[in-house]
Prior knowledge:
The complex is a heterodimer of chains A (266) and B (65).
Chain A lengths: L5 E3 L2 E3 L3 E4 L6 H11 L3 E8 L6 H12 L2 E4 L7 H15 L3 E4 L12 H13 L3 E6 L3 H9 L6 E2 L13 H10 L6 E3 L5 H10 L3 E4 L1 H4 L4 H21 L22 H4 L1
Parallel strand pairs in A: 3-4, 3-10, 4-5, 6-7, 7-8, 9-10
Antiparallel strand pairs in A: 1-2
Helix pairs in contact in A: 1-2, 1-9, 3-4, 4-5, 7-9
Chain B lengths: L1 E4 L2 E4 L5 H8 L7 E4 L2 E3 L14 E9 L2
Parallel strand pairs in B: 1-5
Antiparallel strand pairs in B: 1-2, 3-4, 3-5
Amino acid sequence: MTNSQFKLYDTSLSSRLIMGSALYPSPDSLIQSVKAGGSEVVTLSLRRETAGEGAANDFWEHIQKLNVHLLPNTAGCKTAKDAITTAQMAREIFGTKWLKLEVIANDDTLQPDLFELVEATKELSSQGFQVFPYTTEDLGAAEKLLEAGAEVLMPWGAPIGTGRGLMNPYALRTMRSYFPDTPLIVDAGIGAPSHAAEAMEMGYDAILLNTAIAKAGDPVAMAKAFKLAVEAGHLANQALIIEQRDMASPSTPVAGTPFFDLDKIN
Amino acid sequence: MNISINGKTEEISEITLAALCKRFLDHPHTIATAVNGQFVSVNDRPEITLKDGDKVEILSPRQGG
């Protein structure tokens, strides 16, 4: 029961670490990090082609060699309409129905616009996309996203790129309990492997992160650290973590405790 | 006529979207296109003749989180 397979839509996966492909110091660092992290799913984007520059095509060739599932995003879109057009373009290029749907409400927090997100999810689901919405812990929005056709939800841990970990563990725990059968992925805000382990211990199905590995001093080593943390957290959840107590409780048997100096005890 | 290609205005004579893509870059298979905010599939590009004022977006794969 260690790291059992799980499904995102109709795809079975073993690795519960989903990695972004941005911000790496070099293409080789990206490739080696994905391998070290054992990730089977990598996110990527579409951006304006610049005539005469081959950089974009180099990146694409590198990614294709990884032989992983691609999860294109709609990063930067601020309306459902823009996200839908970007999604359609991504589907043609990447040949996948999967879509990490981002509709951003605010440049400072990069928080999702939940109203546009629901609208875009509904339309894209009707067009056959398998939508992975980047959302918050809001249960009302989550229900509407599921009604709109999403079968996976991706609540944030903290704002994108902040590395602050799980800012609202209570709400994330509630969300996990409220949707026991929906694949839930904590996406964004993870900074340290312990943050990822915390979410997995709560019972989250997977972690999606980018900056914490790509901007680490040694991305390849950090990718391995996250791999281990995600596996450890998942295994701990499966093994059932003990309840917390208010009072101390000795772990060493009390019976048979030797008393060498009875005078001092009395 | 003037059209906008990825936000940059270009003066150009009548042309289809397919021909524009061919002229614009040498790897036409790794791009996706939209005109005036509407996706145009690779199969539809030859059918789209660009008009004055059209806004063309030509996107390609890039890193993303």
